Amino acid sequence: MDRGKDVFVTALWRPVLALLAFALLALSPARAQSTHIQPKLVAESAAPAPGGATTLALTMTPDKGWHGYWINGGDAGFGLSVEWNLPEGVTVAPFRYPVPEPLILFGMMNHVYEHPYALLADVQIDQSIAPGTDLTLSGVANWLACTDKVCVPEKAVISVALKAGDGAVPAASRTRFDGWRALLPQPLDRSGTWERRGDTVRFAIPLPAGSALDAPYIFIETQNLVDYVAPQRFSRNGDFLIVETRAKGEATGPVAALLKLGDGRGLSVHLEPGAVPAAGEAIAGMTDAIDLGLFWAALGGAILGGLILNLMPCVFPILSLKALSLARSGGDARSAKVEALAYTAGAIVTALLLGAALLALRAAGEQVGWAFQLQHPVSVLALLILALAITLNLLGTYDLPSFGGGQALVDKGGAAGGFWTGALAAFVATPCSGPLLGAALGATLVLPAWAALPIFGGLGLGLALPFLAVGFVPALRNRLPKPGPWMDRFRKWMALPMGLTALALGWLLWRQLGSGSQLIWPIVAVAMALVLLTHYGAMQRGDRRSWLLIAAGLLFVVSLGSTVTEVADTERTTAASGSTFSPDALAKARATGKPVFVYFTADWCLSCKANEAGAINREAVQDAFDAVGVVTLVGDWTNGDPVITRTLTEHGRNSVPLYLWYAPGAAKPDILPQILTPGMLTEQAGG
């Protein structure tokens, strides 16, 4: 076929394809209207000159509450791609993106546009194109549209009519395109350097000392290099801007990035591997500012969640101690206020210390979450011995000034007892994650440390509010029963829930250690504590013939321990017979096209166990699940698991329980409430 014939055929079929594209749009109005981000392709010049170029703009207009993504969407999301249908002799460069905004959702960083934006691309016209040739461009664009709850992959046919001409650009068109160009990052004329030091990635960006910076932020285009949600630290070292953040991935070689300067301005940065100067004078970046709405909502949720925590079964045994202490005060205003303040101080200080330890461990790269201390057997053993000591004290086995008599030490003992009771309540309450508390503690994942700590303090305050109210509101205090002989009986009854707590901690320790040989030393430690406390009580009563009873008790404990070690492995095997959660298991389960129910639990989480017994494992629920083929996956966080911790973080949580329901074909799961009912689960299953 000769050249003239080729040109004739090309001139014929290109307009036909363009007309077909327009027909597709015209015949599919419902599809076009169903997108949540409306695309439109426009050209700066409708008559680009042969041998010249023009610029295309793909304008994207999100619906209210929706957003699109930068070329690197961050932890979630992806940029736009186009499958072009181009005339011969026409080439289109990759789209250039305007400066995005960082957006944290459910503990994940997103690089987004929440307002109308335009992507720009240069179009080159070959010199051989004859003037008047139809150069209509068309293609299929694919992008992701999201809200704070759901994401939808979208696509549309885009097209713009062009004809080879003189390259004239109307003034209005030039003004509009100049406005879009001003929003693009400007290329930095020099390359910077980057290096990895342990878990930290450091960047040196050549930027003159006089350059204006307003809450800078760096977007890394290169994948698998940084933890996007991690805080970014900016400092100035002469004519270099130093950026430090947490590493994530194994990327090597040159790095492409975008430095946001503020007010929509940005710089495209090229970084080569190399030495980075030391950090200098600190500069406040975007991650140093906080979302005040998020902070106040999280603080309020933590206080209310801590208040509700008083009703959870894991806290009740400790509340019994405080109830006894308040009853002993006999309504005395001064004693009640002192104990209330001391109890509040103990709860808040303990919550702050636990929160600070959690933040420090996460900053060091550890994958830990709330109640991390109960994932370690040594901590559980210490709590077990403490619960045993309190149980024996309440039974009258021995006396301590903070729990028993000693009129001269009442004032001093009341404050000390109140403080340590509050501290113990906060410490034992950490396995629970009741209503409002999960989301509130999840916010600490995305807030800077100085803003996250008050959230943990709010939990302690909420936990202490009932006793603070009793201490300072006379009407409530006057309703307390008067001191009398009943208090001794009440004290012994309160040993029951504390004893049950000790048994629960023993069961947890058994579950954590798993094998008989590992249980030997914990059993010896508990037996020694029992011997020493019992002997101490006997000495207080002047009874020096208690060794026989002590020896019998010790033999009983050791015998019980040997029985436990024999059945421990069997018990763990039985408990682990369900489907275990992993990212691969979840992917395979979702690929079946059936509903998937994933729940994250721990043996030390009493609210988790209550949900399992009262809802998940109920016969009616399991029958409803079987009827529709629900696949259930269980993530056991008892001993800690970095994979589960990351999954909790991805869904804005740093504690259990977490319940996820994946409907067939859904892009994201529904997060179910932290208190489940059988009706709620059967409804999810369509029962």
TrEMBL record:
Q: Which UniProt keywords apply?
A: Cytochrome c-type biogenesis, Membrane, Signal, Transmembrane, Transmembrane helix
Q: Where is the Cytochrome C biogenesis protein transmembrane domain?
A: 296-499
Q: Where are the transmembrane segments?
A: 294-319, 340-360, 380-398, 419-443, 449-473, 493-513, 519-539, 546-564
Q: Which CDD domains does the UniProt entry name for this protein?
A: DsbDgamma
Q: How does the record say this protein sits in the membrane? A: Multi-pass membrane protein
The keyword Signal appears for this protein: yes
The residues covered by the Thiol:disulfide interchange protein DsbD N-terminal domain are: 41-156
Source domain of life is Bacteria
Q: Name one Pfam family in it.
A: DsbD_N
Name of this protein? Thiol:disulfide interchange protein
Species of origin: Sphingopyxis bauzanensis
Provide the organism lineage as a comma list.
Bacteria, Pseudomonadati, Pseudomonadota, Alphaproteobacteria, Sphingomonadales
